[in-house]
Amino acid sequence: MKFGMRKPSLKKRIAARTSIKRQIVHRAGLKMPRGYGALRSPKKAIYNKVYNRTTFDLFKFIRKLFK
Fold it and tell me: Which domain of life is it from (predicted)?
């Protein structure tokens, strides 16, 4: 498990927004309601919860500094 700052990746950031799979799921209305990730994939949901609490995003940190 990682602790501290996440290493930013512009390539992954763009890929997440422009993926074909994301577009199909979004337009078809197949999205799960917010908070239902634990029902769909409990192991992944637990990992993501811990990861998001032990790391921080550099860009969000910079945004908070200049607010």
Answer: Bacteria
